Amino acid sequence: MHPSRHAAATPDKPAIVVAETGEAVSYAALDTASNRAAHAFRAKGLAPGERVAFFLENAPGYFALAWGAQRSGLLFVCISSKLTAPEVDYILADSGAKLLIADAALASVAAALETSAERFSLGGEVAGFAPWEALTASMPETPIADERAGVDMLYSSGTTGRPKGVRVALPEDPAIDAVNPLVMIAMGFFGLGPDSIYLCPAPLYHAAPLRWSMTVQRLGGTIVLMRRFDAEGALAAIERYRCNAGQFVPTHFVRMLKLPEDIRTKYDVSSMKVAIHAAAPCPVPVKRAMIDWWGPVIDEYYAGSEGNGLTAIKAAEWLERPGSVGRAIGEATLHICGEGGDELPPRAEGLVYFEGPRQFEYHNDPAKTAETRNARGWTTLGDVGRVDADGWLTLTDRKSFMIISGGVNIYPQEIENLLVTHPKVADVAVVGAPHEEMGEQVVAVVQPADMADAGDTLAEELIAFCRAALSGVKTPRRIDFVETLPRHDTGKLYKRLIRDAYWGKKESRIV
Question: Does the structure show a pLDDT above 70 at 158?
Answer without folding.
Answer: no
